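Collaborator request, handled under Task 6.
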Amino acid sequence: MTGQTVVIAIAATLGVPAGLVLYSWLADQLVKRLRSRTAQNRLRPVLWLLPAAFLLIVWLLYPLISTTVFSFKGPQSDVWVGLRNFQFVFTNGDMLIALRNNLIWVVVFTTFTVGVGLLMAVLTDRVKYESVAKSILFMPMAISYVAAGVIWRFMYQYQPAGEVQTGTLNALLTSIVPNFEPSAWHFSRPPFNTLALIAVAVWIWTGFCMVILSASLKGVDQNLIDSGRIDGCTEWQVFWRIIVPIISSTIVVVVTTMIINVLKMFDIVYVMTNGRLETEVIANRMYKEMFVTQDYGHASAIAVVLFLAVVPVIILNIRKFVSGEEA
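Structure tokens returned to the collaborator:
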């Protein structure tokens, strides 16, 4: 079985590029057979887009349609149940907790990642060791969600009061704050445990926001800033009335990107709490319905709701990006 898997992997690795090269050659030969230059110019983009369109249909459109159909069926996708699965999404107790937590994630995570990222972008833009500082702040992006969850479980780990604390956060606080009561932060009372999980995601994504916003700050005309200072503006006024309006389109794109990411949040919650103590989120609930209870109807309905929640944000993101490119 292992040998067969290796052969399949090698065939896929070599076959896909070879197939694309062959397709490109055949498409080019077909275009050259056309005598009309206009016909060639019209056909060539269509032929180049066909492989991408095929992949989109197979890997995106078909699963979307299939999941939507399953969302109207029973647990084993055998009988039609209408909107019963969607009723479950918005009335079930665990789902309501997941919806509430996702709202908390969207508000807190987006606010801190974009806010702190913008602050770090402004501060690092004024130091000589800018590249080093940005590299350090961006470094958590190189860590996977699963690895970050494991790291922060050790960070939040605790021992009973009076014993040596093995968790970094508890060890630090017990050495600084007198009579501090150690706590397992990710297993504390709601909503503090959810906030502890959000802190992990903020640690990962703040560097990303900083890099994007820093690149936008580099495009601000220095003459505008100097003119504001000459007119008597304070640094705070320069920031809010000159810099922020100029980079507002980038801020909106970063905000929408963070919202899209946080709506799909799964790994950190799964690794650190698996939804216990009211830390459930939509994606983790969908996983449980699909693979634990094996209720494909509920899982598909949750997936459709999650997709519908993301679509408006994606559309806004695309519009802002296009408008920014036009500007």
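The cover message to the collaborator said: "The chain has a mean pLDDT of 87. Residues 85-326 form a domain with the MetI-like fold fold (CATH 1.10.3720.10). Please let us know whether this matches your experimental observations."
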